[in-house]
Amino acid sequence: MRPYQKEYIENIREISALTGRKNPDGLSPEEYADRLLRDEEAIREKAARNMELLREGLLPALDHLFEADSEELGELEEFAAQLAGGQETADEGVFRLIHRALLSLARQKRDRCGMIRELYWLGMGYYWLCNKLVGLPIEIVEKYVSQMRLCFTEAAAYLKYFDEIEDGETRGYILRARANMALGSFKFQGEKIRLVRETLCIMQDGSYREKAPELPWDRYLYMTHQQMASSVSYSKETVMSSEDMASIMESAYIVYHRRLEEAARDGHTPLRWAFPYYAMEYYCGIYDMDHLMARIEKLMDRVDPEDYSPEGLYGMLSLPAFYCQYLEQYPQRIPARESYVEALYRRAMDYADSFPAQEDEKLSFYLRQLSFTYIETGGGVPYGVYLQKLLLRFAPEAYIHSRMVGEAARALCGLIMEEEPAFFDDIEKFRQIVDPEEKRRQVMEDALTCGLLHDVGKISFLELYTRTARQWFAEEYEVTRLHTVSGHLLLSERASTRRFAPVALGHHAWYDGSCHGYPETYRRLECPCRQMVDVIGLVDWLENISHSAQAYTGLEKSFDDAVEEAVSLEGRRFSPMLTARLRDRHVVRLIRTAFEEGRREACRRMYGRERSSENTSTAP
Ligand SMILES: [Fe+2]
Ligand SMILES: [Fe+2]
Fold first, then answer.
1. Secondary structure (DSSP) of 23-66
2. Residue 603: which domain range?
3. Which of 2, 491, 493, 520 is most buried, taking the most CB atoms under 10 A from its CB?
4. Is the predicted pLDDT of residue 236 greater than 80, yes or no?
5. How sure is the predictor about 610, in pLDDT bands with cuts at 50, 70 and 90?
6. Cα(478) to centroid of ligand 2, in Å?
7. How many domains does the chain have?
8. Planar angle of CA 318, 321, 326, nearest 5 degrees
9. Which residues on neighbouring strands pair with residue 116, listed in sequence order?
10. Closest listed ligand to the CA of 518
């Protein structure tokens, strides 16, 4: 690899070490807070250096790809391979950039094998992106899913030239692309099942096998059965036809029994494929929902809480997610199972706390899945607290930012309420409070929680925030904008967090409703909480531009310059009722002090969390 490529990868490694969980290592809380600040500065410097490396090394190389020799192309392929998803040095944005360029080159040169290979890898690049969007409704993620599927579909279309293609590697790409057409979410589950069924036919077709005996056909076939068996996980009974059910049942049977045989050999109990098998028995009418739930409970009770393998993760976190998904569909079954569900979440959180820190990325994927199916119960951890725990554990920088925003919003609201006690009276809860002091106290408390929860949607794209090895590309900016929609979705579906959902949705919208802000679904004038959304939007922007977002936006401003710019955006980006207050130096000082206090408090909590990972308190 070229020196710029090596340096880039080394920087990713260093940034990853700087953003991981930080052990206090005998430091005092103050020293710990200083260390966090120094690490953030180092990340910013390395991220800026990486942009330089791309600008000076990679981008000119991609511009002159047509003249590149095979050695240079080989180096690019190797560089991209180091950046592939799922690794410590993953940078899927640059991975897609390189493979997109290599694909156009292969098209220009009419290099069929190259095109198939590059389509496959570009499809994988999109697959890793789609994986981050797990849990979001298909309408929101459709654009990215179809980009992925188009790549795989085009590569798979070369199946009709299977005879002409001599190269075994390319034939392998065609078949893997064919199987991957069924990855990601679908509008109709039946469509996915149909695609997997067709792949199964191809994998079993003797004529293809004869043409390419060098390929691992049995492994392909088994993996396709796994794909079919797992198609059941998210489906409701009404969306599967009887033919679909028969196909899934057959695959679930094959996979489960293979696992049982393996388990008998190595003495393990198979969990991973028992659930789809049980679920299919239920869908086929062999037993009822209560029986299915009892069987899942039995599986979950058998999991070893110290098993950190994929099987353990599945049992400790995925099975509870499926279980709660059924409870969501049949809420009348919740009351009898409340204490069981509470114990499940407690166990899941303890498991997460004791999970090896270096494997955080895998763990966060599973916990995210759990956050989309979370069931709130009377004695359990409130949903808002659970979400903050996730932020604190997996995205400490986002947690610090959220607490800073919360403290500043609380201070600003306290001041507003002293002067204008009816300022937030559009919100029914506050309108009804007669005692002005009590009203002020409650507004301030809600302002803090709004700040703490405004960015919880970031949980969906954690890696983009926590492993920022450079500025975001346009495509990544676009994806992270979805944190507003995703946060709104998470918060609005649970009773205790519902009233904070508008803040998650609208905190990046502009006061004048112009297209500079997002998302389109936020309509300021229709939102009774708009004043609070405006407050969070302003302090969030001040904090981001003067500190938190600098690594991935490349914009840097001092706090005073940020205040000045906010005032200049009065009536356009920000509410004039709020920016008017920024003209008062006392208010500006109040916000700055609240930011400092918020940062100190967040660091103190991180310090406490890392010092006693056995801490069982429910406070984040
Ligand atoms: Fe945000
Ligand atoms: Fe924010």
1. --TT--HHHHHHHHHHHHHHHHHHHHHHHHHIIIIIHHHHHTGG
2. 393-611
3. 491
4. no
5. confident
6. 16
7. 3
8. 130
9. none
10. 1
How many CB atoms sit inside 10 A of residue 144's CB?
Answer: 21
Distance from Cα 515 to the centre of ligand 2, integer Å: 19
The answer on 413 and 338 residing in a single domain is no
Say what the alpha-carbon torsion angle 116, 119, 125, 126 is, to the nearest 10 degrees: -140
> H helices within 454-558, ranges in order?
462-466, 474-480, 483-492, 501-506, 530-543, 550-553
276 exposure class (CB count in 10 Å sphere: 0-12, 13-18, 19+): buried
Say if 256 falls within a structural domain. Answer: yes
pLDDT at 111 over 80: yes
CA distance 147 to 128: 12
Mean pLDDT in residue range 319-325: 92
Q: Which ligand is nearest to the CA of 402?
A: 2
**How close is the Cα of 235 to the center of ligand 2, in Å?**
34
- 273 and 230 co-located in one domain: yes
Domain identity same for 233 and 371: no
Q: How far is the CA of 165 from the centre of ligand 2 (A)?
A: 52
Q: What confidence category does residue 244 fall into, taking pLDDT thresholds of 50, 70 and 90?
A: confident
Residue 541 Cα, ligand 2 centroid: separation in angstroms? 7
Query: How many angstroms does the Cα of residue 512 sit away from the middle of ligand 1?
Result: 18
**Alpha-carbon span 620 to 382, nearest angstrom:** 11
Same domain for 570 and 485? yes
- Confidence bin at 612 (pLDDT 50/70/90): low
pLDDT of residue 484: 95
Is residue 506 very low, low, confident or very high in pLDDT (cuts 50, 70, 90)?
Answer: very high
